[in-house]
Design brief:
By secondary structure, the chain is mainly α. The protein has one domain (17-206). It has helices at 2-8, 21-48, 52-57, 59-92, 99-111, 124-136, 154-159, 166-169, 173-194, 197-206. The protein is globular, with a radius of gyration of 17 Å.
Length: 209
């Protein structure tokens, strides 16, 4: 999954300033890729124990792992999108009710950069966009959810695409949820540190005309 390898490479560096719509797209893309990578790969290493190097060297598993990371990326992006929506509300002011629509549009542009992953159906990215719409659909009905709760319900979608037999991972949902929650909280901290929220909100709305 070159997407993850490329985007995750600089994730531990100091967050780059985010001031524009394009910068926001890059931040969301990279953080979603990181969430998918971190959760799936770390889980597999923990579950395989001392045999993880042998497992990761097997071609068949490598292919399944790669596909799993791609499949985990859309629900991870949906979580990041909700986090950003909540963070931008104050800066958006009276315009905030359009945030879900504009962030969904931004997600569609990000997804359009990538080909359909090998082994997936042609509608992969259309379904991915549907997950983002689903996550954002009810956000404006009340105040933003605490970030620690935002992995619900998408953590289940990540759990369902793990590259291991379901009999092995039956009791591991809590691990997946906790991993996603921890890294989403970190992404939130980084976003607040890196983003000029007013500039980002203005750029997002200005691009819509």
């Amino acid at each position: 999954m070159r997407l993850v390898d490329r985007l995750v490479g600089g994730i531990f560096a100091k967050p780059q300033p985010v001031t524009t719509r394009a910068g926001l797209a890059g931040f969301m893309d990279s953080r979603a890729a990181f969430l998918a990578q971190k959760c799936v790969v770390e889980f597999c290493r923990v579950r395989a124990g001392v045999y993880w190097q042998k497992l990761f060297s097997e071609k068949e598993f490598q292919e399944q792992l790669d596909l799993s990371r791609w499949r985990a990326y859309p629900p991870a992006f949906a979580m990041v999108a909700e986090m950003v929506e909540g963070a931008l509300r104050e800066a958006a002011g009276i315009r905030q009710r359009r945030l879900p629509e504009l962030l969904t549009g931004l997600a569609g542009e990000v997804f359009s950069r990538y080909p359909v992953p090998a082994g997936e159906e042609p509608e992969f990215w259309a379904l991915a966009l549907g997950l983002v719409e689903e996550q954002l659909a009810g956000t404006q009905a009340g105040p933003p959810r605490p970030v620690r709760e935002m992995p619900k319900p998408m953590a289940r979608a990540v759990f369902n695409v793990l590259p291991m037999h379901k009999d092995i991972v039956t009791n591991d949902y809590d691990y997946i949820f906790s991993n996603l929650r921890m890294n989403l909280l970190r992404a939130h901290e980084d976003f607040l540190q890196a983003a000029d929220l007013q500039a980002v909100a203005d750029s997002l709305f200005d691009a819509d005309g």
